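Technical appendix A lists one of the benchmark inputs used to test multi-chain prediction within the project. The record comprises three sequence entries:
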Amino acid sequence: MERTKQPKRRRAERYRRIIIAIGLFIVLDLIVLAATLFLSHQILEDVATVNLAGRQRMLSQRIAKTIYAAEAEQSTAQTANGTLSELKAATALFDSTLRGFTVGGGTLGVNGQELRIKALEGEAPRNILRRAAILWTPYVALIDPLTGEITPAAETIRKASEYSKINSNKLLDLMNQLTAALEENVADKTDILRLVQIVGVVLALANFAFIVFKLIGRLRAQDALVKQQQRENAQIFATIRDGLFLLHPDGMIGSQMSASLPTVIGKRVAPGDDFLSVLETLVPEKEHEAAKEYISLLFGDRVKESLVASLNPLSQLELRAADGGGDVGKEADSSASRFVSLQFSRVKGEKNEMGVRQTTHLLVTVHDVSERVRLIQAVKDAEMRAQEEIKGLLDLLELEPAVSRRFLNDTEQSLDAINDALRGAGQTRDYPSTISEIFRRVHHLKGEAAAHSLSLFETLAHRFENILSELRDRPNLKGEDLLAIPPHLEDIYSRTAKLRSLAERMTSKDAHLTQNAASGHEFGYMLEALAEKVAINQKKKVRVTADVPDFGSLPDSKATMLRDIAIQLVRNAVVHGIEATNERVISSKTESGNIHVTLKRLEADKFEFAVRDDGRGVIPDHIRESLVKSGRYSRAEADSLDERTLVMKLFEPGISTSPTVDSDAGRGVGLDVVAEKVKIMGAQIRLGSRPNIYTQFSVTFSSAA
Amino acid sequence: MNNKDINEVELRVFITAVTEYFQALAGEPAQVRSAYLGTDLSVPQSYDYTGLITISGNYRGCVYFSCRQVLLRRLLVCMGENDHSESNLLDAVGEVANTISGNARKHFGATLEISVPVTIHGPTESIRAAVRARPFVITIDWLGQAAIVMIDLERLV
Amino acid sequence: MMRLLIVDDSNIIRSRIMRIVLAGTLPGAQIVGLARDGAQAVMMFKAHQPDVVTMDLTMPNMDGVKCIEEIIAINPDVPILVVSALADKATAISALRKGARGFLNKPFTEKQLIAALKEVISNDE
């Protein structure tokens, strides 16, 4: 508000001189007008006086003429009353007028009306009047008897006639002089009037010229200012990096927009374009709708700007690459998507009759925030990568160490093979078949990872597959296209190496811990925790009781191997032995499956380790199914195997009775590892089972090295 | 892919520099034959000329260009150079390495600091990956002659 | 007449520039020196006062940017054309700020070199 007052005051300041000048102009005109009126009035009066003076001339002549006429009538003895009455009237008129001129008073006007005249001023007229009075006073005294009731004597007429003959012309001359003097007076006043008028007009003109000059100067200054502002605006609009424009309520882009706007939004736009139509080509339908709603909200004035700003749905907008030809600006980085932020500020107009300033335009700024978004994305990616690695490590740790080692070895071998294929491609230049080969290997890797529930590797392989399938579909494959592969390969290589070292460190620490703890309690606790974890994964309930008091007395080498066996057998019991909760309930068992782990000393250095569960038991037909499924046995061969042989098959690699593949089972590794360890330990393993009652694996071994 | 690792786009930067080098000097671009991860046996013994640029700054490592003598001779011919002395052959291989590393700064910026080229004539056994376990190896072909570009580079920041 | 000093650590680049310059498209061109590093270049510059210099940047002993500085200190008006493999903008800007007139990226073609040389010379007028 303060801001608007300031220019108002300045504007008043700026116009004051012009207002004063215009006032002066009016005052001058009024003065001239008043002077003109006053002088013209005086001139009018003076002209009347001049006329009266002129009449005095005529009257002096008439008086003389009537006296001579009376004299002539006298001699012919026919005195006419008319002549004498004419003399009387002329004399009276001359006398009253002369008296009026001298001291002021009434007389009859030229048209016979009563008239008051003022005594004449000025040296010349009064001098003339004085001399006229000297002539007139005796003259009037001689005439007076002629105009009485009685017919005048001839002598009286003769005296008057004689006086008249001597003085009439003198009187006429004086009246002539008076008229001339008065005329001169009028001429003087007329001159003054003209002068006043000329001066007035000149002053008024000068004033007018001043006003015009000032106004033009002001206008030119203003024009220059406007021009400079326009130039500066143009410079700002030309150089600013952000997109900047005014949006009209009808959705039109204003006449001035920053030159960078097309570059920022990646599409040609021009002033006058419909903004929403432009936006429509750049963003998905949903966002376009949101923009439309939001802009109408902004023009609506009902919602406060701060609130509207916080609702801006366009603060991070992903732009579609402009369709062909429309793209402008930087060299096309077509792969990277672009993000812009649109900010809107209301531009308010003058107050309306309600005293409210309404939004007339929106100032729209468009920033390119791609870099910021990319950085945020990079941070997210890094976080995701770290999480993936942790998850990968946990997945790996869940596996039996020998299994995970084998997986990592296999993976590295696959990667080596892929790399060899790439290397070989330089010679063969049969890129399609190279890609196919790599694809097969990656696909195999993905399958293996899935089988071991190693989601990290599964994801990595999956991404790799995507790249490869894109390449596979590319016509006219060139050596250069292979450049996409080594970075992915390296990624998996380095992750494999990293996981290997992490896992090795973790397991060795674990093993160390278990050995050093040297207590059956710790060992039992570890198995319970493991069972619980596997059970959660399997959505089963399990209770583990461990009775392994002598575990601590075993030599390290035996303890480590027994530990690996125990992990595998407990996992096996949870996955294969214990039924799902509902299945157990149907079989009238407790909801929780029971696993009992025991380590018994049979002789001084002879032990029996057993894992027993109260699950579904080993069902020979399930084993037959698996054998057929593994593809190693035909249906007939499987059917022909006796139960004892069938059970032994459980310890072969690649056989699993689990119908599904997940992180705990189904991969066909597990019991084969047990069998391997048993062999190394020089131990014996036995399996006892009754369907729906129990399964027990017993390992008998010697603690001697 | 690790953000700090060298990605496909960055590999392309180097390779474009190589192919354009041959294009500019001889009017015939080099073609990429393959790309793989290098092991100790990555550089064929017969590639007896090597230009090596050491990289420092925000990156660390080396960029190599290795090829046979015959390729260098053809390159010199294309440049109008008739003096095929040993020093000029070494000069040529060094210049290729120098140019591809220098050109790569268009993408990486001035923080990719590059050394003057070191040139080697002889078996490449002595060349071992300096920073990567498996450097990127790209084999190229120019007028039927093979060469390799090895990018053994890691980003520090 | 155009007396040229060629500065590059690569012998083949020096002779290539020389061949291109002497091929005839630049009337009156004449080579007054071939320097293999910055230090040698400064010496030759003092000795021969060439009209124009082509300058590599990555060189042993004294690098190109330093060398430009020293040459400009001797004769601020001499047109220097940087001919370098360093393709980043920052390098080009710093070389131009030190006083170079033009910047040509390696690898270059014959036409490109001639055009770049003509441009730095025409700047002189």
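Residues 27 and 155 of chain B are 34 Å apart (CA to CA). The mean pLDDT of chain B is 85. Comparable benchmark entries are summarised in Table A2.
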